[in-house]
Specification:
This protein has a single domain (8-349), classed as Rhodopsin 7-helix transmembrane proteins (Rhopdopsin 7-helix transmembrane proteins), CATH 1.20.1070. It is 72% helix and 3% strand. It is built from ten helices and three strands; from the N terminus they run H-H-E-E-H-H-H-H-E-H-H-H-H. It has helices at 8-34, 41-65, 81-88, 94-124, 135-160, 164-174, 196-229, 234-278, 283-309, 312-329; strands spanning 67-69, 75-78, 188-189. The chain starts with 7 loop residues before the first helix and ends in a 21-residue tail after the last helix. This is G protein-coupled receptor.
Length: 350
């Protein structure tokens, strides 16, 4: 009995939308590089970092890997182009490498979002403030922070994932009637029997997402306090608030996209794994659960990706960029003269 992965429109739609948005992402990179004023020279590189990280993550997930989970079991298979590429070069650890690439790209994208908010907070601080850092120092600190978190993730991943041959044998022993699931060499087992190392790995992933959210919320709160603490003009304060608000709009989309599948599918899956291991006579119900959850996940993913990752971020990103340029070209102080007020408009360049 072979594996038939349905629905087919899920794969077609994911590939189509990814191919459609790749040139849009490239256009966004070109806009950041060439369609700007000199005041945005410093901000450009940080926006470019975020844009490239986001584009890379989209490509890895939707074209390169395109993972499909055989729920309610913690196993799956990549259906993207990376599998063919690794096969062509004779690399045997293709699925594991793809998993690591996806996790690393998500971590780096989250770090680029945190860097944008951190630099926005730094732009509000006056030059004499003790917490004011140079752009280079800020980038180095965030990069070091990212390296530590990514290292922890990779170490916990290698500790949690079992030897694939042993996992296949365990799965075949527990579920002899489902051996057709493990015929494909690219089927990957995260675990067969849940142990402490798997809980640690899952915790590290949730910890990274939660830590990123807490960091962004803290930076927004500190930025808001700083805007009302320092002697800024009303126009400068309004521009800073608008920039922070637009960044919030942009990050709300990937947050919803990352957390949605986690709570809709993965969280219930965690509670069903022990039951499927201890009750082999429930395999018919397991297959029904697999089909139901898969259909829910596919429908949710297609609608979510179409509406969020591909439509809203680009519209908001270009709107933010246009607003930033128009604001810089029409800055007016309280007295009505076109000039820099209190030396804080110069900070808006980052």
């Amino acid at each position: 009995m072979g594996i038939v992965v349905d629905p087919a429109w899920y794969f077609y739609s994911m590939h189509f939308t990814a191919l459609l948005t790749t040139p849009i992402n490239i256009i966004g990179v070109l806009i950041i590089l060439f369609c700007q004023k000199s005041q945005l020279a410093s901000l450009r590189w940080h926006l470019l970092t975020y844009q490239i990280c986001s584009m890379t993550t989209d490509f890895f997930i939707n074209i390169g890997t395109l993972p499909v989970v055989y729920s309610p079991f913690p196993i799956g298979r990549p259906h993207g182009i990376f599998t063919r590429i690794f096969q062509f070069f004779g690399i045997s650890l293709s699925t594991e490498a793809q998993c690591i690439m996806v996790f690393v790209s998500i971590f780096i994208t989250a770090g680029s979002v945190e860097l944008l908010f951190f630099l926005r907070y730094q732009a509000i601080l006056p030059h004499s403030h003790p917490y004011k850092l140079t752009t280079l120092t800020s980038v180095l600190l965030v990069s070091l922070y990212q390296v530590v978190l990514i290292t922890i993730m990779i170490v916990s991943f290698h500790s949690a994932v079992p030897d694939q041959e042993v996992a296949r044998a365990q799965f075949a022993n527990l579920y002899p009637e489902l051996q057709y699931l493990v015929i494909d060499e690219h089927v990957y087992f995260v675990c067969v029997i849940v142990e402490l190392v798997h809980v640690i790995f899952l915790f590290s992933c949730f910890f990274r997402l939660g830590l990123g959210m807490i960091t962004v919320i803290l930076l927004i709160w500190m930025s808001n306090i700083s805007l009302h603490r320092f002697d800024l003009s009303a126009k400068t304060r309004k521009i800073h608030l608008q920039l922070i608000r637009n960044l919030c709009y942009q990050i709300s989309v990937p947050i919803f996209a990352f957390y949605g599948p986690l709570f809709v599918v993965i969280a219930p899956l965690m509670f069903t794994i022990p039951n499927t291991q201890s009750k082999a006579d429930h395999n018919k119900n397991t297959e029904k659960t697999f089909k139901t959850v898969s259909d829910m996940l596919h429908t949710y993913s297609v609608l979510l990706y179409l509406f969020t990752f591909y439509v809203i971020p680009h519209i908001l990103g270009y709107y933010q960029y246009a607003l930033f340029q128009s604001s810089l070209s029409t800055l007016v102080d309280i007295n009505g003269s076109k000039q820099v007020t209190y030396n804080y408009y110069t900070d808006l360049k980052i």
